[in-house]
DNA sequence: CTACCTTCGTTAGTGCCACTAACGTTCATG
DNA sequence: CATGAACGTTAGTGGCACTAACGAAGGTAG
């Protein structure tokens, strides 16, 4: 006696924002599962890549490169430096800043994460042909480039406190 | 003197899972902003649509239709019924269940939300041509259909408690 | 030089969402 | 009638996006 199982209504299934949100959940799960085997999260990966690609930088610079908020960056760097993947030293030329440097250990860690991430992408895109995979990537780049990706007001003003 | 602003590394920008996550943030922001003008969130919309499309249902049924967890459904229905958009009555034929019914007020509310959602989709997809919009939707449907969209283990076992 | 504004790192806290665990109740079966 | 499953509900976790505020330091204008 099936009481009409009635799956997701078509009207919901075809709403782009919902499709994207659903895909994001799937992608996140895939990525997080794998990264967890190395005790990492996606932010760790993002920061390490940013360092490997563009070299040492201040925390604010890393924040801009990765899209992670300055405030959240602190904890990520705490974790990364606790594992000796990065070093965090005061910048001698601008004493407001810290210089974040990728250590050799960090670089090797990144290599491991890299293969995990690549695996996840492969599984994520498995249902699509290579041509479709390219299409999807291009479409998403067009979409995220147009709307400014993240950062509502990350680089606002912050100096003058309430008073 | 610009100390080399150095934006997001290409290696990060082209990772599909990151692109999807970015798109999801944008989409969510667009949708949430609009829904907020009616004091609603996306879950409210999903539930109302599910009711309008497939008729009255139990909470577990709605959970399956929308992808919202049974546990989170409770709060959503509390809010919707507080605004008289739905009614929640015990099911006479199966006393474990509640029957959730869309009220006329709820139906009118849904109509308003519908236009807000449509607006958001339009703005979200604005950078793409109509053909590309169709492509993106199709690709995402293929992707989410393949991996089972949500529900890691929503319909697990739950009856026998620990001890 | 001295105000003033900005940037930087940091702490604290909010809200949404995905997800888990447990529990009492009710139903369906063997 | 005992067992197991489904249902509604409460409570709690963890990640992420995002805001607010602050002290310390740098840049610039007057």
TrEMBL record, chains A, B:
<dbReference type="InterPro" id="IPR036388">
    <property type="entry name" value="WH-like_DNA-bd_sf"/>
</dbReference>
<dbReference type="Pfam" id="PF12802">
    <property type="entry name" value="MarR_2"/>
</dbReference>
<dbReference type="InterPro" id="IPR000835">
    <property type="entry name" value="HTH_MarR-typ"/>
</dbReference>
<dbReference type="InterPro" id="IPR039422">
    <property type="entry name" value="MarR/SlyA-like"/>
</dbReference>
<dbReference type="InterPro" id="IPR036390">
    <property type="entry name" value="WH_DNA-bd_sf"/>
</dbReference>
<protein>
    <submittedName>
        <fullName>MarR family transcriptional regulator</fullName>
    </submittedName>
</protein>
<feature type="domain" description="HTH marR-type">
    <location>
        <begin position="13"/>
        <end position="145"/>
    </location>
</feature>
């Amino acid at each position: 006696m099936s009481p009409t199982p009635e799956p997701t209504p078509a009207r919901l299934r075809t709403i782009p924002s919902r499709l994207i949100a659903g895909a994001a959940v799937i992608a996140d799960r895939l990525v997080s599962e794998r990264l967890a085997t190395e005790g990492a999260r996606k932010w760790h990966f993002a920061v390490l890549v940013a360092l490997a690609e563009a070299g040492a930088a201040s925390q604010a610079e890393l924040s801009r490169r990765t899209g992670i908020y300055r405030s959240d960056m602190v904890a990520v760097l705490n974790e990364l430096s606790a594992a000796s993947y990065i070093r965090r030293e005061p910048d001698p030329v601008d004493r407001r800043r810290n210089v974040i440097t990728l250590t050799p250990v960090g670089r090797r860690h990144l290599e491991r994460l890299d293969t995990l991430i690549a695996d996840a992408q492969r599984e994520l895109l498995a249902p699509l042909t290579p041509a479709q995979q390219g299409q999807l990537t291009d479409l998403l780049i067009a979409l995220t480039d147009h709307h400014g990706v993240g950062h509502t007001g990350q680089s606002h003003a912050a100096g003058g406190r309430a008073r």
